[in-house]
């Protein structure tokens, strides 16, 4: 575990590296007025960071009332974005196949189950390699992601560790999904989950879909719901997800004052606060 002084030095080192890279790399082309109009991102100068003992990192920005709980370092964001793109392509492709002929897909899966599962395991291994040089110290994650990490660590296994790394880093660096996840997870009924995991998870996905303003995102949650329904044919996997969710301390997932401040800026989702 790094001391407070070591963490501050690490932050200063990262800042110096960023300055060095900016001097070495070719300067990007300046955007045209039209491109700037289409670019929704806002720029806030970095003021500094704190490392509260046992509570990750708090990053302060000029013009923002509350700190962020994540330092959006460009290299890490790019790696996580690459993983998300591959994952969403897989999900989209699977759904399209199911829409065309669900019976054929089920028969194909039953016939070639081992080969399909081996392919997915290999893909997880490749995706986890993308994160190899940008992994966070577990203690530096935000509170919600630290709780996800804790539950993953309750059991050991190489593949479980790779899934842990992917889930935790995507959750940490994509708050457009993390805040809705936090919002819905405190509504989880663990008794209902124990009785019928697919039904309870489906209910939560319906809640997420209902709060999305974008029809595309509404549909995305419904696609995930279809995947959960298909997990009935893989009861061992559904059981693992059920156990994981039951072991979560839902209090650690609650949106706090800082989360709510930043969540309100996510215009795609309707939060009830």
Which regions have little confidence, pLDDT < 50, spanning 5+ residues? 34-38
* Count of folded domains: 3
User: How many angstroms does the end-to-end distance come to?
Assistant: 37 Å
Major β-sheet strand ordering? 1-2
Q: State which percent range the strand residues make up.
A: under 5%
Encode the helix/strand succession as letters. HHEEHHHHHHHHHHH
Chain oligomer state: single chain
Question: What does the overall shape look like?
Answer: globular
The helix-and-strand class reads mainly alpha
Radius of gyration, taken over Cα atoms and rounded to an integer in Å: 20 Å
Structure, described:
The chain has a two-stranded antiparallel sheet. It has helices at residues 4-24, 33-38, 74-100, 102-111, 113-130, 143-152, 158-173, 175-185, 190-195, 197-211, 215-230, 235-247, 257-263, and strands at 46-50, 58-61. It folds into 3 domains: 4-61, no CATH class; 75-173, no CATH class; 175-273, no CATH class. The chain has 13 helices and 2 strands; from the N terminus they run ααββααααααααααα. The longest helix has 27 residues, at 74-100. Helices cover 64% and strands 3% of the residues. It has 273 residues and is mainly α.
């Amino acid at each position: 575990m790094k001391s407070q002084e070591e963490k501050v030095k690490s932050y200063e080192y990262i800042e110096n590296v960023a300055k060095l890279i900016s001097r070495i790399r070719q300067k990007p082309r300046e955007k045209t007025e039209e491109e700037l109009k289409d670019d929704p991102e806002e720029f806030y100068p970095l003021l500094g960071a704190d490392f509260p003992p046992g509570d990750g990192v708090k990053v302060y920005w000029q013009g923002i009332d509350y700190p962020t709980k994540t330092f959006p370092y460009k290299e890490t964001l790019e790696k996580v974005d690459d993983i998300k793109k591959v994952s969403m392509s897989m999900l989209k492709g699977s759904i399209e196949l199911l829409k065309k002929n669900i019976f054929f897909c089920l028969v194909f899966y039953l016939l070639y189950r081992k080969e399909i599962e081996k392919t997915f395991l290999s893909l997880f291994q490749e995706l986890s390699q993308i994160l190899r040089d940008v992994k966070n110290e577990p203690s530096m994650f935000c509170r919600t992601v630290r709780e996800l990490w804790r539950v993953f660590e309750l059991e050991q296994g190489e593949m479980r560790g790779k899934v842990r790394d992917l889930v935790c880093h995507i959750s940490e660096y994509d708050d457009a999904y993390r805040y809705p996840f936090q919002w819905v997870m405190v509504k989880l009924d663990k008794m209902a989950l124990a009785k019928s995991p697919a039904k309870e998870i489906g209910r939560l996905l319906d809640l997420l879909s209902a709060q999305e303003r974008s029809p595309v995102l509404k549909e995305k949650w419904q696609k995930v719901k279809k995947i959960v329904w298909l997990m009935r044919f893989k009861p061992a996997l559904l059981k693992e997800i059920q156990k994981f969710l039951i072991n979560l301390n839902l209090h650690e997932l609650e949106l706090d004052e800082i989360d709510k401040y930043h969540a309100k800026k996510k215009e795609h989702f309707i939060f009830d606060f």
